[in-house]
């Protein structure tokens, strides 16, 4: 977990450096300022979407854990009963299409 935090910090530093370089280049060119503005707006949207995807994956993982818990509590040793007619595979495929 510590390594992940280190990598995230390094990634953030690299992004800041890249942003500074972009601003420097944009100031040299008249059309660069508009291009930089568009790029920053796109980057903000990308960051928002990335955060949203992370949150959605987290929610999905939590729901999956909950379903596994319910299944094991209700069926314990007879887990085969859950999928005896193939509905579990259909539900899984439907969930994949949604995501």
Automatic annotation (TrEMBL):
UniProt keyword annotation of Coiled coil present: yes
InterPro entries, per database record: Myo5a/b_dom
Source organism of the structure: Timema douglasi (Walking stick)
Alphabetically ordered keywords of this record: Coiled coil
The protein, known as: Unconventional myosin-Va/b domain-containing protein
Stretches assigned to the Unconventional myosin-Va/b domain: 2-63
Coiled-coil residue spans: 4-56
């Amino acid at each position: 977990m510590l390594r992940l935090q280190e990598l995230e910090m390094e990634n953030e530093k690299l992004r800041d450096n890249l942003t500074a370089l972009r601003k420097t280049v944009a100031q040299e060119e008249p059309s660069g300022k508009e291009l930089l503005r568009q790029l920053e707006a796109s980057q903000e949207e990308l960051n928002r979407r990335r955060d949203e995807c992370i949150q959605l994956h987290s929610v999905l993982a939590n729901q999956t854990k909950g379903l596994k818990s319910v299944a094991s509590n209700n069926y314990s040793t007879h887990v085969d009963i859950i999928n005896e007619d193939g509905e579990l595979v259909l539900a899984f495929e439907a969930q994949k299409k949604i995501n």
